[in-house]
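SAMPLE LOG
Freezer: B-3
Tube label: C17
Construct: single chain, 505 aa
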Amino acid sequence: MYYHNLSQKFNKVVESNFNNQALRFEKNEITYGVLNQKSKSYAELLFNLGFKKGDVLCIVNRKKYEAYGMMIACLKSGIAYVNLDEDNPLIRTKKIIDRCVPKGIFEDSNSSIFKIFCSENGILHLNTELAFTNESKPKPNNISSVDGNTIAYIMFTSGSTGEPKGVAVTHQNLLHFTEWIGKRYNITSEDNFANLSPMYFDNSVFDFYGALFNGASLSAIPKNKMANPKELVQFVDNMKCTIWFSVPSLLIFLINMKVLSNEVLQSIRVFTFGGEGFPKSNLKKLYDIYNKTANIINVYGPTEGTCICSSYDISENDFVDMTELPSLGIINPNFSYEINTSESVDGDVGELIIIGPNVAAGYYNLPDKTEKVFGTYQNGAHYLNRYYKTGDLVKELEGLLYFKGRKDNQIKHMGYRIELEEIENAMSTIPYVKESAVVYRRLNDSYGKIIAYIVSEFEDNVNEIKEELKNKIPHYMIPSKIKFLNILPKNANGKIDRKKLIEKN
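STRUCTURE (predicted):
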């Protein structure tokens, strides 16, 4: 069936799954019928308060029933939502709000901080109490007026200048994306997604849209469970989740804490991961535990490509060569791509350019930055197709893509061009190195130091590690300093926080 907006698709899903669970929490469950009614009530509330198609609503999303309902209400109304991180420094939240210019901020509990913020900045403050007490006559909500190019959400990522960039993703982008998830993962109403990622993080798009727009259920994993590996695994087990999607760092953390085994997470039928490289030394451990009970899928995609644009099934063959990261796989349907090797020293490696209907609309209220990396082809092959320059360096081999580093993470050291990822990949092949991260500390305009941070089973073996690296990378890539930590610092998304590592020096 053809849909031209997400509301139409969600309504169809509700028809087929009215009494099935949509949201699962520790102590209660919400059916599709109840969730749909809540979203309708919230849509009426927004119209009563003067919201219209094209407006923006920020949501302080704590993974409660009301926040999920408000996200769907926005989709029904043609309002773009922005999920906020309540732990963000207020100054960064202010930058996000200044960029997206919301008409209101909704939160699923009553926070005095955001109430004060809204009052000081002339922004409507909405919460569950207001939603339940609003009794004015609802205005008509014309769903058909929401077309495929309407912005569904704005996802903020960090910017190189310190100003957050908001990626504007459309209904059309997400309709293609939800269809792909349904087919690629064979989603049915029996599936239950583990909503591990915070809702302001790109990976949550897979969970929310993959589940609720394919008739599956979504289990909200509380933030306090994420810090305790045993509690997290037990919670996912208790919820009987079938689909797991996270950054590799979270899985590596659970492996290193020795909480993964054949006795836990047996209901998971797919482990999928993305957002950063998964060193094969750790990936092999995950594979050995779960390859008989689950498919293990590596995915790749920038926020600007609607979360995911390629995928790859891990198999035994991937561990013949332990020196490379696993393949990014093949580009998803509804994408095309080019590899721009014009600036490459190695003719086979170049910047990946993704093309097609799943490329986002651009950066919200940032036309200059949008123009630098987004565009529309005028040639015959891709005429009028949108493209995005990812900044990711890739190589294609036998039809598969392989990640080779970042265009903007290249340093020049001792006259040589170096990708820091190459050093990290070499570190990951050393058996007793559990985790590693490499940063570049510039001491002056002409000189800097490569510093490696390692979580290892053994300390005080710096010379041994350097000897190992000499067999894997050129001498000019050998870190000048190697420091041992009990754990590498992670940001709220579960990725290694390199900024904190640099600050340690």
